[in-house]
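Extended Data, panel c. Modelled sequence:
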Amino acid sequence: MQPTLLILAAGMASRYGSMKQIQGFGPNGETIMDYSIYDAVRAGFKKVVFIIRKDFADDFKQIFEPKWKDKVALDYVYQDLHSYTGSFQVPAERTKPWGTAHAVLCAQEVVHEPFAVINADDFYGRDAFEKAYGFLTKDVNDKVYSIIGYELAKTLSDNGTVSRGVCQVDANNNLVSIAERTKIYEENGKITYEEGDKKFEVPFDSKVSMNFWCFSPSVFPYITKLFAEFLKEQGGNLKAEFFIPIIGDKFIQEGKGAIKVIPTGAKWFGVTYKEDAPEVQGSLNALIAKGEYPSKIY
């Protein structure tokens, strides 16, 4: 069964002000998402599902349909605050989406095959998509999922601190835990993170999660169960969010199976700070100059 790529794009409108302002970084105005789709298609993916908000669906389709509809099957899923909440009464004051794991849950009616999940505005690199495709076509099953693990040093910003999910990995490359570390930066040849008023060193080659996950469709009933528990325990907290790492962590802790950490040497980049934009542009231009990408990808 051919795997699907699921792209989390429901938060884009709020970040960019409107869909029409999606930032172009490539030589012809390509977005970071365009490069992800290009890499996915050349790795072998035949279907892309976008998770978006319904109120900007028309604008979104106008931007992406003309570029990609002839090259890959496209589908759309809408993340809504009331989706899959059952009998739970969503607080009237709640405006914040329920988070990335809820976004994945919203795709269960259109995704019936093994699938990868990525963020819309992160550049993951060709190698990551090839590794994900290989895993999804050969190794995934109901008890074995995976995460693409990036080297921490290749995910930092020169313009400020970053937050990263630092992975603890066992001798068999299985994920043991993900610890969210905030305020990570490089200083005096070392990578440091701050917690409270203390500083801790992190090895350069530590594997970190950039939210590139690979699942079988068996994850949907599991997410449904965990989301119901989340709503019961935290649904009244207007800022609480239901993230994908919560799923991964529970899957391991409850003994449901293993999550393989598949290492990639690809350099991740994204726009954490607006000052990162020229750097992203420069990184793309360098990859094009090296022949990794053609100057026109669609």
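The mean pLDDT is 93. This feature is highlighted in the accompanying rendering.
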